[in-house]
Amino acid sequence: MGCYSAILTSAILLLITPGLIPSGWANRHAVAMRRMAIFLAATSFTLIVCGVALLLKFGPMERNAAIESSTSLLGSGFYWDALSATMALLIGAVGWTILGFACRNLDGEATQGRFLRWTLFTLGSVLMLVVSGNLLVVLFAWTLTSFGLHQLLRHYGDRNWAVWTARKKFVISRLGDLFLLAAIWLTYHEFGSFGFAEIFASADHARRMGDATWSITIISTLYVLGAMTKSAQFPFHTWLPDTLETPTAVSALMHAGIINAGGFLIIRLSPVVSLSPVALGFLAFVGGFTALLGGVMMLTQSSIKRQLAYSTIAQMGFMMLQCGLGAFSTAMLHLVAHSIYKAYAFLRSGSALEEAGRTDPKLLTDRKLSFRLAATAGAILVSAVICTAIAWLFQLDLTQKSGGLVLGIVLVLALATLLVRSFATGSMQISLQSVGIATLVAGCYFAAFIAMNAWLGTSVAHPSPGDTLTQAFSIVPLSIGFVGLFALESILSWTERNRMLQIFYVHSLNGFYLDIPARRLTGIFWARFNPVP
């Protein structure tokens, strides 16, 4: 097991150590920094792959590495299992890709060396966070990640809005640090240890004995609040859409990596958090509301990057909803898929307008109302049949899965969105092709869920539907909310001019002005009377 510690420590130090390089030297030796960044990212990823290979051969490392090896990270150890290995692979692959993009995208900039230095440091901090086996190291890595991101957000220090956004994020992050610090302190007093292995063993005993206390509810709620600040959940979401003054590579790193830290924290601590139905219910409510709010605001954005930012808010909200429903394996699948997609979307955002110019979908506004309704109803019906058939094929009973009904309804509506425009063309060939694609997508999703659930195994909690208070009370309101979002998107595609929709569009475009309190708080914190630069 000491081999695990050596590999993971090396992978982390390779990325974090460049943070010690002075920015002036890094900027003067940009070519050397580019070569070093790619080499270190590739080497770190290779070490992670070796760690995964050892995991497959010898099984998870679930005991404190400080007991087993003197090479442990800060004497605090690692928790190397399927969950941490998946996250490490994701961070290594996405980080390597983003660094390769940044070396080309920022070529010739005077501060490229500084950017690469802090990008490597931030990647190393996130990697430390996901492989840590001790809550104190998690807090340390959590803080380092925020510090590294703050430096990246201030990369263009001459841009007032970039500096202001970094300050707003700084204030929200410090609030998250307080939540996490309080939760860790109470966890130690409740479980008598900072180590994950000991905490999870005690949590499992409490679950079997039905001995969950109110202190566990308080602890779980504090972890949820800390995760909300990191993963841009309402009302802590307002900093994310304002971070677009940074290089594209920073946006990709944030939306594909750092933003997942909150979700990972909840999934990692699922054996503890799942003991509290109150905390899960709160998380499901906030996540569902954030998903709906982000989805609505995304529909009205004219800027491609702001649209992607609100999309991330919505997707993180949906991931938190999945966690709140107890579907931790599904949430992990969502996290991985979203990270890969969002990194791709940001890195290719420069060609989005060119591709949009080649796309000319036939709008539903060309059809009568009766045809629009028939196309929409038909799309929903076909989607429901596809999902039911594939679930039966994979022998999955959604009613026996945590959050299965709610997530099933969301999947049906997502596929219906794919199908409705094809049905609106009136072309049988296009409609059949879309049905085939929808069937393939649904099949891949169910297969990926089964694979992820089997891979994670005991790395996450698997509460039964009866274990979650949210199951009974969340199905109806959440389903109504997502159906309402689907209806709104349909209405927007049907209607070209409507006075009420135009008013709603303006408010949604401005984020319903929810960022004003955060701006004022930032202004107070930084001793500025004017909250807008």
TrEMBL record:
GO MF terms here are: NADH dehydrogenase (ubiquinone) activity; NADH dehydrogenase activity
Membrane topology, as annotated: Multi-pass membrane protein
Where mainly found? membrane
Is Transmembrane among this UniProt entry's keywords?
yes
List the Pfam families hit by this protein, alphabetically. Answer: Proton_antipo_M
- Name its cellular compartments: Cell membrane; Endomembrane system; Membrane
Annotated transmembrane regions: 6-25, 37-58, 78-103, 115-142, 178-200, 212-229, 249-267, 279-299, 319-341, 371-393, 405-423, 435-456, 468-492
**Which GO cellular component does the record give, naming just one?**
plasma membrane
Q: Which residues form the NADH:quinone oxidoreductase/Mrp antiporter transmembrane domain?
A: 132-359
Q: Which UniProt keywords apply?
A: Cell membrane, Membrane, Oxidoreductase, Transmembrane, Transmembrane helix, Transport
One GO term under biological process is:
electron transport coupled proton transport
What functional role does this protein have? Part of an energy-coupled inorganic carbon pump.
- Tell me how this protein assembles: Forms a complex with DabA.
Instruction: Report the sequence similarity comment from the record.
Output: Belongs to the inorganic carbon transporter (TC 9.A.2) DabB family.
The record's section on HAMAP family has:
DabB (MF_00862)
What protein am I looking at?
A: Probable inorganic carbon transporter subunit DabB
Provide the species name: Blastopirellula retiformator
